[in-house]
Design a protein that fits this description.
single chain; alpha+beta; Phosphorylase Kinase, domain 1; Aminoglycoside 3'-phosphotransferase, Chain: A, domain 2; 2 domains; two-stranded antiparallel ribbon; 16% strand
Length: 352
């Protein structure tokens, strides 16, 4: 079964229950949806573009929205939809460039699964297209600086927050907490051994830096999870992995080689320089980036992406969701292990 053929949660031919629920949720007399379009991407979730005509109530008028729901099988690392919606709403309130949160439901009776609805953001998100844009030399540095500033705004969200109580107590040692989570998922979901990855995790544990500041980490802040139109940022997407953590986690994830999509010379997301990204961040944040700590979190990023890739591959190999995309994602884990080992070797060599 290919990606295009797999079972879908939302049935675009049967929207009556969703329309009635939306009308009640928005205080409208009537909501009519259409056209409905399945958007590209979505290995973990489904994203549907919804045209909406709302009669009555505070949102009366025509709208362009996105319905986001889970794929038939998912990754246990990700939040439930109401939790992702709460993180998005917190970011929106903090002034981060995100789609407007509209509504969310945990009621399976509406479409068959929990879902959230947000505003639609124009542009492209495909990482390989963005880093290969023929005009990247003209807009790359400005976009990189803007993304640094947006990350600092995300990191202005700090515990305690009653609206984000589901995130639990902030970890006392974020790096060790990340390692423990990865080891638990390897033990719980994968039968085969991964000695290279275990070595990387052991090195990360032995070299874990202390964290002086705990913030809301997006935890998937990278090229491919933001929208760009004509070289300008329109929205930051995908909040299903957000958690309390060290701000350098997001910095390392953004700069990690695995998210440069082959444009290794542009170390910040494959689009610009580290200096531009750090400059944008430090211009907004009250706690500047420590460049000496970032390489550690880049190794952590490679390890975490390796674990996620293995879990995605297991979704296919287990028979829960046959998909060529998931199968190929699982095969990327060895590349991430190699990246991590090379980076460890470089850091150890630099120590002398």
């Amino acid at each position: 079964m290919g990606l295009a053929d797999r079972a879908r949660t939302l049935d675009p031919g049967d929207l009556g229950t969703l329309e009635a629920w939306l009308a009640a949720e928005l205080g409208a007399a009537r909501v009519a949806l259409g056209p409905v379009e399945l958007l590209a991407g979505g290995a973990i979730g489904e994203n549907w573009r919804l045209g909406a005509e709302v009669e009555g109530g505070p949102r009366a008028g025509e709208h362009d929205w996105v319905l986001r729901t889970d794929a038939p099988s998912g990754v246990s690392l990700s939040h439930e939809k109401h939790q992702e919606f709460a993180c998005l709403a917190a970011a929106y309130e903090a002034g981060v460039a995100v789609p407007e949160p509209v509504a969310q439901s945990d009621d399976h009776a509406v479409i068959g699964a929990p879902f959230m609805i947000t505003g639609f953001a124009s542009g492209i998100a495909q990482g390989r297209r963005i880093v290969r844009d023929p005009d990247i030399a003209a807009f790359g540095e400005a976009l990189t600086e803007r993304l640094g500033a947006e990350l600092a705004r995300i990191h202005s969200i700090r515990p305690p927050r009653a609206d984000l109580a589901f995130l639990g107590e902030p970890p006392k040692h974020p790096a060790l907490a990340q390692i423990e989570t990865m080891r638990r998922h390897l033990d719980d979901h994968l039968a085969e051994a991964h000695p290279a990855l275990e070595y990387v995790l052991a090195w990360l544990a032995a070299n874990a830096p202390a964290s002086d500041l705990i913030v809301l980490c997006h935890s998937d802040y990278r090229t491919g999870n933001y929208m760009v139109e004509k070289g300008a940022l329109t929205a930051i997407l995908d909040w299903e992995f957000s958690h309390w953590g060290d701000p350098h986690e997001d910095v390392g994830w953004f700069c990690a080689r695995c998210w440069r999509f082959g444009a290794d010379e542009r170390e910040a997301g494959g689009i610009g320089s580290r200096q531009a990204f750090y400059r944008g961040y430090d211009g907004v944040s009250d706690s500047p980036i420590d460049p000496a700590i970032v390489p550690y979190w880049e190794i952590m990023a490679a390890a975490r992406w390796a674990v996620v890739a293995l879990l995605q591959g297991e979704r296919h190999s287990s028979g829960r969701e046959e998909s060529l995309e998931l199968l190929l994602t699982g095969m990327m884990a060895s590349e991430m292990e190699y990246d991590a080992l090379c980076d460890i070797d470089a850091l150890e060599a630099a120590k002398g």
